[in-house]
Amino acid sequence: MESNALRHIVMIKVADKENIVKMLQKLEILGEGIPGVQWNTFTVNTDIGLIETNYDMVLTIDFPDKKNFFEYQTHPVHVALVEASTPLIASFSVIEFYLAPKQ
Question: FRET pair for 83, CA 20 to 30 Å: which of 20, 67, 75, 101?
């Protein structure tokens, strides 16, 4: 059984620890939904601080298919969030991968 569902993960290192709350607020607004884009799960977590060099937060979104992922990437709500967040971010890493089908 083939799965088209995919996971999008963004790990974020903020420029200043005070920016964590601002970033969380921006991502929570995004998590309320984007018209025309469907996802199965949307979670944001912050690092618990055990290792100083860790990323500060991670965004995980599971999309049902590539179509919704690409609609999300180019949607004006997502693009505006990226533009508004760029000054708050020191670095980030992104990965997408297909999810194994549920048995």
Answer: 67
